[in-house]
């Protein structure tokens, strides 16, 4: 048996048996639950999302590659997909009843309710990535990019030249991109 086939057929270190799955759940379950709860806004659905995440992870354990990403990053990628699936199922059930009136009523009733799941997930990912960079870099990004304040104003408030603030912003964005890459987020 070739070495690559042997490696892929064995359970990865993160999910090799029931005890390993339990350890992964203990290490990451609460964090995955908070993520799902924040995205779905329903404790029951969040619990279902975490359960489905570990079930999918167990079934796809042979596809986990610790050289590509950590077990945590891999589990978050799975829970993100589960959350999207659950939110879509929920929004599909929320289509309005089509009335028997004229064409205008029918067209208006066919518009689905807006699905803001992707926006919630993206906000959470940015928040998580911001927590992984230095406080100085986080401050620059929050002030200039998220709050839309001019570099001059933030620089004056911080007591540094505007050019220095622009350099900090450049390196802060680089650090944020690295943090998001580490989380498995692709832009």
From TrEMBL:
The keyword Transcription appears for this protein: yes
Span of domain RNA polymerase sigma-70 region: 25-91, 129-177
Pfam families the record matches: Sigma70_r2 (PF04542), Sigma70_r4 (PF04545)
Gene Ontology molecular function terms on file: DNA binding; sigma factor activity
UniProt xrefs under InterPro entries: RNA_pol_sigma-70-like, RNA_pol_sigma-70_dom, RNA_pol_sigma70_r2, RNA_pol_sigma70_r4, RNA_pol_sigma_r2, RNA_pol_sigma_r3/r4-like, WH-like_DNA-bd_sf
SUPFAM superfamilies: Sigma2 domain of RNA polymerase sigma factors (SSF88946), Sigma3 and sigma4 domains of RNA polymerase sigma factors (SSF88659)
Gene Ontology biological process terms, A to Z: DNA-templated transcription initiation
UniProt xrefs under CDD domains: Sigma70_r4
Keywords, comma-separated and alphabetical: DNA-binding, Sigma factor, Transcription, Transcription regulation
Chain ranges passing through the membrane: none
Family: Belongs to the sigma-70 factor family. ECF subfamily.
Protein name as annotated: Sigma-70 family RNA polymerase sigma factor
Species whose genome carries this gene: Nakamurella flavida
């Amino acid at each position: 048996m070739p070495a690559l086939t042997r490696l892929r057929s064995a359970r990865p270190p993160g999910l090799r048996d029931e005890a390993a799955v339990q350890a992964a759940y203990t290490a990451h379950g609460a964090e995955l639950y908070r993520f799902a709860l924040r995205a779905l806004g329903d404790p029951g659905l969040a619990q279902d999302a975490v359960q489905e995440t570990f079930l999918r992870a167990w079934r796809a354990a042979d596809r986990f590659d610790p050289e590509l990403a950590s077990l945590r990053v891999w589990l978050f990628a799975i829970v993100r997909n589960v959350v999207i699936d659950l939110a879509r199922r929920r929004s599909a059930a929320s289509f309005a009843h089509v009335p028997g009136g004229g064409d205008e009523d029918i067209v208006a009733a066919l518009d689905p309710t807006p699905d803001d799941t992707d926006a919630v997930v993206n906000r959470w990912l940015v928040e998580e990535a911001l927590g992984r960079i230095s406080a100085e870099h986080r401050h620059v990004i929050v002030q200039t990019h998220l709050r839309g304040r001019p570099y001059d104003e933030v620089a004056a408030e911080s007591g540094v030249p505007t050019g220095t603030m622009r350099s900090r912003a450049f390196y802060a964005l680089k650090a944020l991109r690295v943090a998001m890459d580490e989380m498995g987020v692709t832009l």
